[in-house]
Amino acid sequence: MSNADEVERLRRRLDREHRARIEAEAIAEQGIRDLYRANQTLDARIAERTRELEEARRAAEEAEAAKGEFLAHISHEVRTPINGLSGMLELLQDEVTGRRGQEWLASARESSDRLAHLFDRVLWFIELESAEVMARAEPRAVEDLLDAAAERGRGRCARAGQLLSVEPETPADCTVHATDDLVLAIDELLDNAARHGEPGPVRLSARLLGDRVRIAVADTGPGMGEGVAATATEMLDPGESATTRRTTGAGIGLALVRRIS
Question: Residue 199 — φ and ψ, nearest 5°?
Answer without folding.
Answer: -55, 140
